[in-house]
Write a structure and sequence with these properties.
Blueprint lengths: L41 H7 L8 H16 L19 H8 L4 H8 L11 E3 L2 H16 L3 E2 L4 E5 L2 E5 L7 E6 L10 E2 L8 E3 L9 H13 L2 H8 L9 H10 L10 H7 L2 E7 L2 E6 L7 E7 L2 E3 L2 E5 L10 E2 L7 H7 L9 E3 L3 E5 L3 E5 L15 E4 L2 E4 L3 E3 L3 H9 L3 H27 L5 H20 L2
Parallel strand pairs: 1-3, 10-13, 16-18
Antiparallel strand pairs: 2-5, 3-4, 5-12, 6-7, 8-9, 11-12, 14-19, 15-16, 17-18
Amino acid sequence: MPHTGSRGCALAALRLDQILITARVDDLATPRKTLRSRQESASYCASIQSRQDPRPFLTRLRTHLAASLLEQGPQGSFVMLNRCCLHGKLPGAAIESHMSSITPEVVTVICDHGDVLNPWQWCDADDDVVADFLAATVQGLIESGGWIHPEARIVARDGDLHIECPADEGTPLIRVPAAAMLPVTRARWNSGNSELSILGLDDWPEGADLPLLITQVGLHNACGKLPRLVATHPSASQTLSAEIIDAVRVLRPTFRTRTMSPTDVFWATRTFRLPAFAGEAQPVVLPVLDTLNHHPLGAVGQWHGGSFTVSVSRPTGTTECFLDYGHQRDALETALVYGFADTTTSIAHCGPLDVEVPGLAVVRILDQGRTPTGDLLPLRAERSGDVWSLNRFTFTSMDPSADLFAATGMPMRWCEEIYTALVGGYLAILDDLNSQLISAPPNPAVDVLLTATRHLRSVVTSSAR
């Protein structure tokens, strides 16, 4: 679904609970003056976005966007969306420069996409607003050349999203073409913690689908995603104590060392690095596909021919489909990256650790186990005198002593002694973190970390038997 880049850059901020209005730049400071000249009422504006209008929301958005551009011309701005998501603002000079090439032909490009036949057939939501945005998302995906299995259903309950499909395992489930991928890091976002809001689109690439981006913002705001993330995600929580943060850093030294807004954390949980634009790998959101929950036995996505495809995978024995988010993360890493502790994993990655094995060696585990993009590196060992340095180490339910033997060439009985020492050192660090968490005031983010540390302990102790 190619779009002309110039017409989209006038969009500025996306907010909840705004009625559909069209504003001139000079009027933005006084919202009471920003209704259209024909004085559309709030009830009329709300009805535009209700089920009374059978057109999918994305079509309605494009139609009103085009009407606004024609009415206001290159000197004007628009403020669009329904009670669910949009309030636009940019300095007049920016609007003039970005909208100067708006023509009736460009408006035709915005509007001329047709309707996907009943996109609500893929949606099972407990909220009409969420259902509208899900239908618009499906519409945008299919208009872009994407595909979703006809028996699939996107299920929304209390703001949580997942996909169910009864089709056979391995059957194609979703295909997302590059035209539907959204380079969210190319937009400027607000730093608040109540809702997603676009502040600017100066770097928004030509060909990226702006209306579909707006739809995703509306969907996530309608689901209350950002407030929930701030409350529960260890990397976004504003209530974790300095002592807990320091205790986590003993295991994961980079935890919260880079300043990230809640919006930054949110998009980091939903993006894939793919060469969707100009062949350059960059973080992109994959609409529809990003509603798949994670399971280590879930589907593995495939990038081929400019599209990302996943197949049906139901490892829990229900109709819910899952995606393996990749990178072989343990429970603590999924907690810090995604905001949930994956208790289905059977691995625990050791943090930086020095242990001395009397009569054998000092073994040093370094924090050098991943590439800059997060891929797990092979285990490597180097010896300097009596000190063996390993770039990383992973406790598993298999025989980790064999990994030490393969990396160091030491006799197996020495590797077993070293492994026992590593288990003791790692559990001591875990216990210190766990005691900090238990003594902390009740907090959803603390609960996520507690679940992670307890699962890590279970993995490590079972591997040591």
